[in-house]
Amino acid sequence: MLVPQGVISEINYKQDEVSAEVSKASHDWLKIKIVKDKTLLNVLTKELDGGEAEVICLALEQKADWVVLDDHDARRFAHRYGLNVIGTLGLLAWAKKKGFIKSFLSEVKRLQNAGFYATAELTKKLAKEIGER
Fold it and tell me: What distances in angstroms separate CA 130 from CA 41, 53, 67, 71, one per listed residue?
């Protein structure tokens, strides 16, 4: 999985439980990349958070199959650029289906304990779709 350097910088700046997990994971399966298209990045950062703008730019540069974005505006921009979008919960559901994680609900709970917000409705819907309750 590719992650823009700016996103890693944002996560590391927070110094919380989530950033510790990402730091561990980054050595295993995350590949950190620097966005090259500074012109598009400057355009997008006028409308979006820097991390989300970098995700969209990197996805376009790398011709990514999909991007992980939770922010509504960022998702809208990604769709506008023809990118396929999945959210954090969708990524966890996919990871559960592929056998990368043991429990979708446990991972959601772990993220929530670290400050991630997810609606109960969406969490239940995805859990049901993947056969986890």
Answer: 36, 31, 21, 23
What pTM did the predictor assign?
Answer: 0.80
**What's the pLDDT tens digit per position in 3-21?**
877 776 766 666 666 566 5
- Domain co-membership, 62 together with 121: no
> Residues 45-54: pLDDT tens digits?
999 999 999 9
Residue 116, domain extent: 92-129
- Backbone angles phi and psi of 117, in degrees to 5: -105, 130
How many C-beta atoms surround the C-beta of residue 38 within 10 A? 9
Q: Are residues 98 and 75 in the same domain?
A: no
